Amino acid sequence: MVRLLVLMAPHEIRLKLPLPTKEHDMIRKFILIASAAGIALTATACNTVKGLGRDVQSVGQAGSDAIN
What we know:
By secondary structure, this protein is mainly α. It has 1 helix and no strands.
């Protein structure tokens, strides 16, 4: 048996992927919602850490004022 190698241009190469189903749509929506929730939690965590830093700084300043 003889096999031929056919060279194709990159735009001619097509992947044969299954068509999206309802299950794929559900997974895509879940990933989108989870990503949005992760970004929202990260943003609020940054504000919380910033507030904690201010609290620690004020405690340090109060201690410094008490010593002086």
